[in-house]
Amino acid sequence: MSEQDESAGGESTLTVVLAGAVNLAIAAMKLAAGIITGSGAMLSEAAHSVADTITEVLLLTALKRSERPADRMHPFGYGKERYFWSLLAAVSIFTSGAVFALYEGFTTVFGHPEEQTNPIVGYLVLAAAFCLEGISWLQAVRQVRRDSRAEGRSFFGYLKLIDDPAPKTVLFEDSAALVGLLLAFAGIGLHQLTGSSMWDGLASILIGVLLVCVAYLLGRTNRGLLIGRQAEPRLVRGVRDHLVAAPEIEALVDLQTMVMGTDHVLVCARMDFDDALGAADVERACVRLASELSEQFNDVREVFIEPVPRTDPTLRATVLERYGDLQRPIEDTQ
């Protein structure tokens, strides 16, 4: 593992640990405030923070288990464990946070009116929680911004293609937490002004809908990575150009890539070599090209090169069926 990878892994761990500590403290404050004030929105926010705390535990598990080295049973390593545990984190946000918030909201709106007590306690807790959540949110933004600059991408462009779910998950859940706090504040305030607990319940429902959206977005991201997503287009184009430029290569017949984990890309290339080359020349060229790709692209960890004739009808039909166009796998965006 390179120093850059170790630094990125340490930053992800810091982001997750900070978020977990913040969410645990906030969950306790919100629960106490919810019991004191009788606010459904505050109780929903407490469930939200509990879900976020569980999420951080799952993310820490993902970070640690995915760093295990390859072995006989898992020759490509355990990188995809990060996506599995991160997918469970998205499920946790839905089951522990969204479902409770929706239940609390509908119960408050359609149930018996609830009397509000000590709303000032709710305001103070929400203000303190906003400050603490802001600290965690700034750390997540700082990490994503720094990493995006290092790769020469825009903030949102990098966020779309990121292969480390930890900072993205923390950023999304902290953003949702800040919005949820504002919704809870509005619900308590309108309840106090109008005397109707319907506003408190409506705030809970909106918090639940917000968490459903966040859980869906994170689940979709991790699902794609678990299934096996192509490497980001810039890397694929770079690999293509390097292989095509090799003097031994007459044509690149097929190029497949897969994200196997954070900063871990598998490359499989089928190439038509110069017919004048002998078997030993082709073998040396394969070894050299694999070594060059790993040196030039830090994320490329495994390279498989297969010499094939470009005129083979079965192979050509397979490639055309998959892509429709021999250049399409290179130019596709995620």
From TrEMBL:
Organism: Amycolatopsis panacis
Annotated localization: Membrane
UniProt-listed GO biological process terms: zinc ion transport
UniProt keyword DNA damage, yes or no: no
Cation efflux protein transmembrane domain: residues covered: 17-226
UniProt GO cellular component terms: membrane
Alphabetized PANTHER family for the sequence: HUEL-CATION TRANSPORTER, PROTON-COUPLED ZINC ANTIPORTER SLC30A9, MITOCHONDRIAL
Coiled coil residues, start to end: none
Lipid bilayer topology: Multi-pass membrane protein
GO MF annotation, one: monoatomic cation transmembrane transporter activity
Main location group: membrane
Keywords: Membrane, Transmembrane, Transmembrane helix, Transport
Bilayer-crossing regions: 12-36, 83-103, 123-141, 170-190, 202-219
Highest taxon of source: Bacteria
Protein name: Cation transporter
